[in-house]
Amino acid sequence: MDRTEKRLTFWWAVLTALTFMSFEAGSSSEGMVATAATVGVFVLAFAKAAVVISEFMDVRTAPRALQLILGAWAIIVSSGLISQWLTL
Asked: Which of 23, 32, 34, 75 is most exposed, with minimal Cβ within 10 Å?
């Protein structure tokens, strides 16, 4: 296995673990703990999106401007969704 395959396999395993963590957090919560769990699930979802964008779409080797734009997108959209959900 070459270096790229090892890196992608590592990130795939991390994404899989984060998916299971999201499922557990979202399915076993009640009351105020559910609010924290939901926010946690949102954060994990956008962390996973950032990993997919960076590692699997090869944005980590793209020009710095594109990296910053996509990083800002993840922060802005996740913050907006979380704040919108908390105000419901």
From this structure: 32
